[in-house]
Design a protein that fits this description.
The structure holds 2 protein chains of 2 kinds. Chain A is α+β, with helices and mostly antiparallel strands. In chain A, 17% of the residues lie in helices and 32% in strands. Chain A contains 6 helices and 16 strands. Chain A has helices at 29-44, 66-72, 128-133, 163-175, 227-232, 274-277, and strands at 47-50, 53-56, 59-61, 87-97, 113-118, 140-145, 148-160, 179-181, 189-201, 209-222, 242-246, 249-253, 259-261, 267-270, 285-286, 300-301. In chain A, strands 3-4-7-10-9-8 form a 6-stranded mixed β-sheet. The radius of gyration of chain A is 28 Å and the shape is elongated. Chain B is an alpha+beta fold. Chain B is 15% helix and 31% strand. Chain B contains 3 helices and 10 strands, in the order H-E-E-E-E-E-E-E-E-H-E-E-H. Chain B has helices spanning 7-25, 139-142, 164-167, and strands spanning 27-32, 56-64, 68-72, 75-79, 81-87, 111-114, 117-125, 129-130, 151-152, 154-161. Chain B has a 6-stranded antiparallel β-barrel with strand order 1-2-5-10-7-6. In chain B, strands 3-4 form a two-stranded antiparallel ribbon. Chain B has a two-stranded antiparallel sheet with strand order 8-9. The termini of chain B are far apart. Classes of the chains: A alpha+beta, B alpha+beta.
Chain lengths: 303, 183
Amino acid sequence: MADKKYISDIRSKQIDRQNDSFKEPTVGLYDVDEAIHYYFENVIQPRVKEGENEIRVPIVYGSPERWSSVQKAGVFRDETGKIQLPLIMYRRTNVEKNRNLSRKLDANTPNLHVTFEKQYNPRNRYDNFDVLVGRQPSRKFHSVVIPDYVTLTYDCIIWTDFIQHQNKIVEDINYASDSYWGKENHFKFLATLDSFGIENDIEQGNDRMSRASFQLNMSGYIIPDNLQKDMTQFNKTHYGTAEVNLFTTDVTVTNDINKVYDGSGNLITKQIPDSNLANQNLPNVDTNPDSGNNSSGWVNIND
Amino acid sequence: MALFGGQRDVSLFRTLSRELVNKIIDIEVDIFKAAVYDSNTNLYGESINKVYKPGVRVACLVDVEDQDWSASEFGMDVNQLAKFSFLRDDLLPAGSIGTPSANVVLEVGDTIWWNNIYWELDSVVENQFVVGKDPENDKGFTSGDRSEFGSSFSIICSGHQTRKSRVQLDDIRAGYKYGLYNE
């Protein structure tokens, strides 16, 4: 197995996408972290009463760099640099793979994809000539590898001056549990939390401490944006129906590998064996179902 | 009857100390006491809307420690400890023993404003007696067997830097409040 090639060098699978504006979806850990921050800031919006005013509780990601913590995060500090409360902190502490859901099986030859058809195709601009010759519309498909499903664990701490503030924030967050957190029209992740640990202490030489900690579990998914995925996934190949000219007759190869239609939609060949397909003067027809991402048995034609 | 520590001696010590603290060193702090009857507390013994009595400005000696920076999951945080030493006679009501007369009783939990920091008092120590006698608790003096000797001379408070969000004496949520040109 030492000489096994992890990256395909089949040139027919390598399509130049330099002018392709289609952006493949990628989901990373940052998206999950950002979803939590967004949800706290814009949906939960924890607020407490401080004197006559109602203030929003800032949320920070845990253990920032020193310069950022002191010099940039001035919104919750006084002139001397002392942190002002209330404050919510969260930080990711664990990423665990969830194998109970489907998976791509092998990173070098991913087996499971989500395939979808792109709605707009510039090749299908309306043209009378297409109508005259009975040209079939071109269809463009993209296949994206299914994500790695993961369970992310976050440690969160609510730090307040008063237990009354703590109660309010705990109530707000508890209400938001078991729902999908994230931006509208963007990636969303199921957030669950089970319990709050309450810690109220007073010690000499320090302010009274009122903290509530909880563990937030996010059911996330990851599609990395890395070279290995790009080179092994074959999702840069778009495939589908294509046209080939056999003398004066337009022939369309459809999803069914064994059926070939002429330009007027008549079935001209039935049950062509895979091994004989190459002998039907069909150029550039890939008949090997294992060579690409055609797990559904579709024919890949590089048009 | 004791030979030393009578009221003339105590008066000498008081005069010298007052001059030193109030005229020469002259470090002044503001003492804020919570208005106990005006501040409503909840079940947890905390008050969201604290009310304070008017601040009282008193001279004292300040022994402040270095800032103690600590890193936590919330980022860097700072704490500082300080010791405030008051002449006890300066804190008595007017008409007691000369001036100044702040008329304030320092207790644990009071707040002191000094050096742009609010200090919450962790301890109040009154344990410095001239010739070891506090006239208020001196059996010989209270029973009338002898005249007044000694004096409780100082009140030394230890405090830590507290959060302004807790004290609620400053509007810390208002952002930049001095205008564009610091007018």
